[in-house]
Amino acid sequence: MKKQAIDSRPAGPKPWYDPRVRSIFFQIVALSLVFWAGWTLIGNTLSNMESRGISTGFGFLDETAGFGIIMSLIPYDATMSYGRTFLVGLTNTLLVSAMGIVAATILGFVLGVARLSSNWLVAKVALVYIEVIRNIPLLLQIFFWYFAVLSNLPSPRQSVEVGNALFLNNRGLYFPEPVTQDGFGLVWGGVLVAIVAVMAIRRWAKKRQLATGQIFPTFKVGVSILILLPLLAYLMAGQPLTWDVPALKGFNFGGGITIIPELAALWIALSLYTASFIAEIVRSGILSVSKGQTEASKALGLPNGLTLRLVVIPQAMRVITPPLTSQYLNLVKNSSLATAIGYPDLVAVFMGTTLNQTGQAVEVVAITMAVYLTISLLISLFMNIYNRAVAIKER
Amino acid sequence: MQSGEIDMLSRNTTWTLTRDASLGLNFAGVNYYDGQGFLVNKGIGVDDATQLDGATVCIQAGTTTELNLADYFRAKGMEFKPIVFDTSEQTVQGFASGRCDVLTSDRSQLAALRSKLADPSSAKILPNTISKEPLGPVVRQGDDQWFNLVKWVLFTQINAEELGITMENVDDMLKSDNPNVQRLLGTDGDMGAKLGVPADFGYKIVKQVGNYGEMYNRNVGPDTPLGLDRGLNALWTEGGIMYAPPVR
């Protein structure tokens, strides 16, 4: 018999047979390969660009831009830097994306519910809309709205006008801009107080309903408070508001707020297109809730509207949220089609004009891709937080 | 061209410092001296660019046009609203639909775009030229032999016009004893070998494509739909500034 040494450790496999050690080793190898590939790629690009005399670096962001941009949410003129044009493009993209997401969600939900309506006409109209809009490429839809519809509006000298304050022509929709004077801070204070008051009332009303079962008209009361309280503050402060009314000066209208047809066409096309996809997602979400829920809620005496709002949709949201996130991301990325009609979004201003003027393609495209990636990741993050909040919690 | 897919640009790219120095390109000469102008509808009653304060202007993206426009309007203390499109067809569409009052581009381009309108006579090109736009062939840095060749093809054509060699008479010119003609057509000297091409490269160019003047008149001349006069692009001996270094 062999003399066996007493080993306090349990006998395990040798390191190179141990599956855990192996997996860690291969992961390290794979990661190093990825890093090495990235390093080689970047190094190769930089050395190639240097050998061809193409300038590199991010110094171009401080140079004077020298070109005009038709619409900007932040102050901009041609003497500002390329970095500034980046911000202008970014804010324009965020604006049309936000407007598009809101409109597409509202329209999509309405259409999705309509598709399931027991009214034959409503359901069929929704079906036709969804099938038609879904299957036409977005670029064509944008061209349609811009070239076929909005460019047929009258010229500025023959604008459609409403009460000498609102004007519609093929250069845009013009309406008066409120200019705040001193004392408007009181109105903002009024708004803040109103919001706090409404939130408190909601909490109180819910508690009362849980205790006594009496329903309080929270919505109507809340809306009236939100309107009346700031209005009261406004009157008390002596009406500190003047209006900058648009007027025809020479070629175009000056003053007031303008919505340019490029923005309108892009927003309409994006919203209608994405809404058709969201409608199908909402429909699938609603169909995923078991019929027993609807029947039980009807047995309790809830009318159709309340059944939908209080029972079906909250449960459907769990199925709706992940594909809804994808549609939001699609909308943000599709907004880059703005270059086709001249809306100055990030791609058109930064990846178009700035890239062409400076010639620094690699840096500009890298920055633009990084921005879109960041926006998309942020949207996904918020939607996932929401998704986790409404998920079924196992007890 | 930066990536190496193509070797030469033969289009209307303006020669600027930025493009020459920081994009890894070389400009092989100027074959058209152009300038930026404005195309307006005759109906708006404007005769001069200084009356365009507040106008909406259609531009093509990524061109020197955008920069020149901003500089001009700022220098004159005027304002404008730019609509930037991807392609020149879209700029024409924007102008024709009334979205903008003015279309701006190089004057030669404006002549071409005006001919595409439904009613070309309804628009006019304003007399102002607001920038220098020297247009010519472009090659990549790093290939000196190709650069030299492209340059001297252009200069050969200009010199051919100066010496009176045309597509019709080039065969007769082979028998000429003018040393300049002999060197250009390759009957004397080894100009071709210096460039790395056969000795009769000059003859082949004029025989197949013609001299500079013939090329100009065939493509953009007064008898074409564009109807552009030689103007600055005439030879230096005829009131223009087309001047090529000698072939020797």
Description:
The complex is a heterodimer of chains A (395) and B (248). By secondary structure, chain A is α+β, with helices and mostly antiparallel strands. Chain A contains 11 helices and 8 strands. In chain A, a hairpin with a 3-residue loop joins strand 1 and strand 2. In chain A, helix 2 (82-115) runs antiparallel to helix 10, helix 4 (138-149) packs across helix 7 and helix 5 packs antiparallel against helix 6. The longest helix of chain A is centred in the first third of the chain and has 34 residues, at 82-115. The two termini of chain A are 58 Å apart. The mean pLDDT of chain A is 88. With 248 residues, chain B is an alpha+beta fold. Chain B is 35% helix and 16% strand. Chain B contains 10 helices and 10 strands. Chain B has a 5-stranded mixed sheet, sandwiched between helices. Chain B has a 3-stranded antiparallel sheet with strand order 1-10-2. The radius of gyration of chain B is 21 Å and the shape is elongated. The two termini of chain B are 31 Å apart. The chains are: A alpha+beta (395), B alpha+beta (248). The A-B interface holds A 49, 51-55, 66-70, 78-79, 147, 151-152, 155, 170-171, 249-252, 254, 261-262, 339-342, 344, 348, 352-353, 355-359, 361 and B 2, 18-19, 21-24, 44, 52-56, 61-63, 66-67, 69-71, 73-74, 80-86, 90, 93-94, 97-99, 101, 140-142.
Strand content of chain A: 5-15%
Average of per-residue pLDDT values of chain A: 88
Silhouette of chain A? globular
Strand order of the largest sheet of chain A: 1-2-3-8
Instruction: Round the mean pLDDT of chain B to the nearest integer and report it.
Output: 89
Q: What's the number of domains of chain B?
A: 2
List low-confidence stretches of chain A.
none
Largest sheet of chain B: 5 strands, mixed
Annotation field: number of helices of chain B: 10
The helix/strand order of chain A is HHHHEEEEHHEEEEHHHHH
- Portion of residues within helices of chain B: 25-40%
* CATH homologous superfamily annotation of the largest domain in chain A: MetI-like
Number of strands of chain B: 10
Q: Beta-strand percentage of chain B?
A: 15-25%
Helix content of chain A: 55-70%
Q: What's the CATH C level of the largest domain in chain A?
A: Mainly Alpha
